[in-house]
Amino acid sequence: MLPRSRSSRWISVTLPWRVMVQRFSFLFFIILALGVLLLNRVQPALIQGMRVHVVDGLAPVLDALSRPALLVENGIGTAKSYLYLHQENQKLRATNDQMRQWQNAMIGLQNENRELRELLHFKTEPGVAYISARVIADTGGPFMRGLIITAGKVDGVREGMAAMTGDGLIGRVIEAGDWSSRVLLITDLNSRIPVTIAGSGDRAILAGDNSFAPKLLYLPHDAVIGAGSRVVTSGHGGIFPPGLPVGMVAESTHGTTSIVPAADLGRISYVRLVDFNLKGGAFNPLATKVGTLLQMPKPRKSE
Description:
This protein has 303 residues and is α+β, with helices and mostly antiparallel strands. The protein contains 3 helices and 12 strands; from the N terminus they run ααββββββββββββα. A 6-stranded antiparallel beta barrel has the order 1-2-5-4-3-12. A hairpin with a 5-residue loop joins strand 6 and strand 7. Helix 1 crosses helix 2.
């Protein structure tokens, strides 16, 4: 009970002073403000010095109080910058993907334009019909070398038409549907083309073996063929007209002469089908005899 009595006495003593301070504090601050204003009029240098000292004293406190707000402001600025950079990164990625698509489309158009220009370089004889078609499938495999093209009988395609590029002969049409056709390449195992070595005039049969370098068969024994010699069609057998470029001699070893085709058969997108009106072009390669292609005279029987 003694501590309560002491606290109650202390409250009873201090309460009148607190009430008095609350009543006269407003009046005190007004009088203090008026005194400061009056002193600033009379002694401005003194007030300025006091203000400077007060500001110097409060500067560390204000600096300490402003740091949390500065940290929050910096954090908000960093978050905004990160969000902006993320959005810009997404925009740049989208732009980069779009530019890559445009680049791929441009490269494809350039290749297509180049191949079409190469087709235009091939000169056909007056009155010879031709059709340009796009390659849609490559039937290359271990037992066949061929192409599927987007042109058929509706477009005027028939079996036996020569398939050309701007570089030279690549094969011929062996099957013609209504809307598509199949081209047998000169590298196919079933391909047999009568050819001539430009310069020497030696005749041979260009035989495909499903490799990238078809072979020359039935060359004369005394033929001397150097690497780089041009190989063209001979026109025999009524398959192709004479003079169509086929390739160049690559090498001749152990009695076997191989050639490099004039056209890159692995990168063909467009072909030109030329109709030379030669009936021999529609022959069955599996049933044709080599002697007929060369039109070699049969030896006479000795009487």
